[in-house]
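sorry for the late reply, my laptop died twice this morning and i had to redo everyting from scratch. anyway the thing you sent over, i finally got around to it. pasting the sequence first so we're on the same page, its 296 residues, then the predicted structure underneath. double check i copied it right bc i was rushing
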Amino acid sequence: MKIIPCGTEHFEELVSFVVRLNSDDAHHIGFFGEGEADVRSSLAECLIPPAEGFQLAYDAEQLVGVFGVDADPEISRAWLFGPLVEHADWHSVADELYAASLKAIPDGISEQDLFCDSKNSNLADFAERHGFPVRSENAVVTLERADYKKPAFHESQFSIVDYSPEFFEQFERCHNLLFPTTYFTARQIVEKLDSTRRLFLGLENGSMKGYHFCKVEPDARSGYIDFIGVDEAMRGRGLGATLLATGIDWMLSCPETERISLTVNADNVAALKLYNNFGFVTERVMRAYRKKGSNV
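ok and here's the structure:
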């Protein structure tokens, strides 16, 4: 077995391998997304370039495994893209790749995340062996353009506006309360806003009560809902549905968008009911693992 860095010269081979294996539930790694466009987009967004953060395993010149690392020192977390292995000795190859990949994790990182399809039993065994407890189970739900069912709304007392800087403190407070351990800080979200990423705010009497951060990826012909949340005191009054509809309408205004997806806790019955009312269906159930500690 030979383990080498991906480098730029093996990048296309890496992409082809990931696209082929990741379509199989038994291999699926959530951080890569679905299909070639998603894989390329996910790799392009890595803070650690794949040429430096990915290791490849070869057996007799045949690529049999990949393992990647991305990390954000600001939130002290690393995301592990793998192990994705096609070999009779899956666990040995996975362990060798993990050991080789640890050197790509920056100093000061205190959390490592794994994210895979719940049917990926090999990764479940890997997580247990390396001390990654289950953090959550998540449903990936998708909406095809043709299946969009926009519910009828009563006249709303809320106004929906695009983000502007005067709302940053309110937005940051709400985001930290609703998603205290998530992958983007409020500051990182607003810094990402551009023609493909929008942050919609729900206001009541000039005060922010909820938000929806979403994006379109024209090359992948898709849209994605990163975050949607409503102040707990406002729930049940239709703000979440109004924010959701606003974001969907914007994403579908991009003619390339064929489908929209998001990830939600699998036990969040109220949220799943809301998405189902709009035409979303559950595509797969994912499992998230997180190892914590000062020397993970």
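The radius of gyration is 20 Å.
thats about all i looked at so far, will dig more tmrw
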